[in-house]
Amino acid sequence: MMTWTARLLVFPLKDRSKEPATSHGHLDAKPFEEWTVKATNWGIRCGPESGITVIDVDPRNGGDIQQVLPLLPLAPRVKTGGGGWHFYCQGVPAGTHFIKLPGIDFKNNGYVVAPGSIHPSGAPYEWEQEGDLPEFPASFIKPPASLPRVEPSGFFPDDITDMLGAIPSEDRDTWLHVGMALHSVDPGLAGFELWHEWSKSARSYKGIADCNKVWNSFRKSGITLGTLVKLALDHGYKRSAPLVDLGGQFAPRERPTIKEPDDLPFTPTIPVFLLEEIRRWAVPACDPVSAIAVALTIGSLMVARTVTTDKGDLPMVQFALVGPTASSGIIAGDSVEKALREASLGWMLRGGTLSSEEKLKRALLASPVLYHFTHTWAANVQFSQRQPSGAMSAAIALFDRILRGSPLRHENEKKPDEEPTVIFDPHLALIVSVGQDELQKILTTDEMSRGSHEMMLYVPLRTPGEIPSGPLPSSVLRRLAGPALQNSLPPSSREPASFSVLKIRDPEGVSDDPLYRTSKIIARRIALILSAVDNPSATEVSDSHLAWAMKFVEFCARSLKPEESAGDGRMTPYDYVAAFAKKQKTRGFTPRDLVQGVKPFRNLKREDRNSLIDLMLEDGLLVSVPVPGKRVERLYHRDFVKKGENEC
């Protein structure tokens, strides 16, 4: 006996019709026994008021019962007079959004014609199958809109179900935190079904409708999959397998044949097996040189917050991929993102722009290890130059502190009385894509010269490509998904990371170009990544790794020769000042502006600065113009001074 029918709200319809016989239609619905009128046809109100949601399948409009029947084989089902079907289910909350299917309507408001009624064609509405109300299929509920993206930001570990099984679901805060953690990885159906299935184990479980309503309310909260992992570990869960199913012991496989560029002045093969595997994975799709940047970036994430050198170097390298356009490096940036997703480390991704210090600090609170890619870097920096007090300047200054491993203090704006959070030893892997025409513009930008520009390795791109289609080797995933997981968990204890200190010698022979004044530090950092990935127990950086790093950095330094350059292909302070002067146009500038805005000029001794300005005045490249009423002069590029006059 279907006892659930007793609580349905009904109302009379006109005979042999679907039209209501009352003034307000389904709004007049009430229990059947309260009606005194006699009618042939009746309507049943759908939605929370009656506690039912009905799936209406209409073959005349393309509805296919096979899209519903496999999911609801035992559901109460009515054969309609029009040749379709009504599937009765437990109700979902008002306002629930459903997916769109041709010829299938989800009735969570309004009404349906009750069995026993007569269709205008004369055919009856009759029960085809009776039974208890099943839960409404979650696959028909439209997933909530993703914030800020539609696709998942990562993939769930293979043992996610086991981890959930270790976490009790009775406590509401825990229930919400687990839901938020799953939502942060996949706000769609896969994440919801995991949470809903786990929620059923609670005595306070209120059904799929309640879960769906709460799931729709989730927004970005800083709670990530790392929170769920920590909850599982706190409740005694012990991982018997890595994050990714490796399918047994890694078996060496035949490497694909790769046509290496024959004009590189160094061997592109990375002298570390694991990183070379990544490069070979990337190089069929990526530019040959950017594939090295991809491998080194992933390698830096493998050893994040675990190693340093006796000179204080951290395993972080920031790559600026210089190609024909600002979007040329997108393939390399997306390749690293693909690798992190395959290793279930999607919460470490930060795309788009981190254009303020506050945004970057919040990101580091969620995960002290981040990978950030952007192809709007140069545009943001140039905008910041026009707006010197803009957010980009603060963000770059913060990047600079991160590169040097300084602790970060984050003040709580909502609760200013609270003790600020201290983020120890954050790790930032950065890839930016820069167009060749933008490179010259940012070299004289004051904000850039003060910040991460110093630690950025400019890498020349040659050819565009596509994101690697094949999966990463399982040995890479094992290593990436192991230490990286623990080191990227939100900082709960606020304690500094534990570092192994490796001895390293200072490299020699690296370019002394002003653009690469920190080449030695960059080379040491690359060598540290190589040695730490190659041997986690290493006590010193291998000389062979340092030699390879030096050759790679030197190649990058020599490959990017700006158009305005000295005879040996390198820009001199003279060239930088000339480029700066041309950018000022009719505004002009003072020697003090040069000190603030042109780093190669600032690095000169005071007497050399004066000598350089005198030389450029003698050459006629610069023109000095007195300021009326003041005992000062402004300098202008000769292209912006009227011929024969010292007026602008």
Quickly list its features.
648 residues; single chain; five-stranded antiparallel sheet; elongated; disordered C terminus; 13% strand; five-stranded parallel sheet; alpha/beta
Q: What structural category arises from helix and sheet content?
A: alpha/beta
Taken from the alpha-carbon principal axes, the silhouette is: elongated
Task: Report the sheet with the most strands, covering strand number, pairing sense and barrel closure.
Answer: 5 strands, antiparallel
CA gyration radius, whole angstroms? 33 Å
* Total number of strands: 19
Helical content class: 25-40%
The main sheet orders its strands as 6-3-5-4-8
Any overview of this molecule?
The chain is α/β, with parallel strands linked by helices. It has 4 domains: 3-140, no CATH class; 160-234, no CATH class; 273-559; 573-640, Winged helix-like DNA-binding domain superfamily/Winged helix DNA-binding domain (Arc Repressor Mutant, subunit A, Orthogonal Bundle), CATH 1.10.10.10. The protein contains 21 helices and 19 strands. The chain has a 5-stranded antiparallel sheet, with no helix packed on it. A 5-stranded parallel sheet has the order 11-12-15-10-16, sandwiched between helices. The protein has a 3-stranded antiparallel sheet with strand order 1-2-7, with no helix packed on it. Helix 3 (189-199) crosses helix 4 (208-217) and helix 10 packs parallel to helix 12 (436-443). The longest helix is centred in the C-terminal third of the chain and has 17 residues, at 543-559. The protein starts with 9 loop residues before the first strand and ends in an 11-residue tail after the last strand. Residues 145-155, 240-260, 446-451, 562-569 and 643-648 have low confidence and may be disordered.
